[in-house]
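Page 47, continued from p. 46.
Same chain as before, 166 aa.
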Amino acid sequence: MPGQSRGAPGAPPALERFNTAPAEDAERALLTCLPSPRWALRLSGHRPYPDLPSLLAASDEAMYDLSPGELAEALAAEALPALPDDTYSAAHTALTAAHTVYETKFGHVFVICLDGVPEEEALDRVLEDIRSRLANDPDEERAVAAEELRRLARGRLVSTLGGAGR
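Result:
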């Protein structure tokens, strides 16, 4: 944009590289954070960002503007939550049943942001949340899933850009 600098002095090196990268490279990096072409294109197109909080705010805004179809596309590309090794084998039956019921009811994978949840509490949190969210109607759950996906994208952006400014 005219009149904008290429980033604030002292911006983290990863953010500066992101700000100055060719658009297709920036979009490719963004797609690793959230598999939404429109979201990635929008964030890439509004560079440069003076700092990570500005990028995260733009990410949130772009996430809120996704259409139901774009949200469904992003949800379809999500994987199961990352849990400690052996968790899925140790609690395989309960998790498989819960995920199957959830996916049947809502038509997409269960997403949850586990940032800040201690590893030893992750399984309990996933099981608790999936059971609780199964009580939602599809519209309520779409809003909850969108919020979880927004939080996942923020965490991935922070991780991708070096973890500064979280």
